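== Polypeptide entry ==
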Amino acid sequence: MRINRVPGRAWAYVRAAPGTHVWLGILFVTTVVLHSMPSGFEENFLRHRSTNLHELSRSPVRVLVASAMWIESGHWLPYAFLYTVFHAPAERWLGTARWLAVCALAHVGASLASEALLLAAIRTGRAPLTAVDTLDIGVSYALAGVMAVLGYRLAVPWRYGYLAAVLAVFALPLAAGPTFTDVGHLLAALLGLACYPLVGGRGKARNPKETPAGARG
């Protein structure tokens, strides 16, 4: 590949998945903002943008959107890698609108379902009342949903192995003292699997053993 073609190909790659890269850009900015805050202020700041029971009862739409724009850990690079590996291919395959629909369903559905389970635990005394302010923020539910829906991009039998691995990643934590976030991740992955109707007409499933056309040479 000629060096002078690299910028053009990089720009074409970004344009093929605009939503992924705009989202990554927002996360980069908010991560910088988070790191610039005085020590000890970050947790309270994020709590007001968290999909905890307290904030959901006050402003559900605001926190459902805001919670997807911040990274609790403050580490952007791992998410840049994960977005490149999972979100970008999913958006290029499904198209921006369908990819965004999967993200929204997984993020909103898993957030509301996991918080409903937490509310039930509080009401039955299995969780303390202070859990209404539990920090629940980040992009992992949407990521789990997209990881799952990407399984439909693979041909059988590769699809089964991939989906088994994805479900194992999110199911195994449930065996060791599960939290409502662990439950949310598994629910998000299942919601991603439920998005099968969105993959119709998006091209033939890929066989990893086949060499894509034009890749030889």
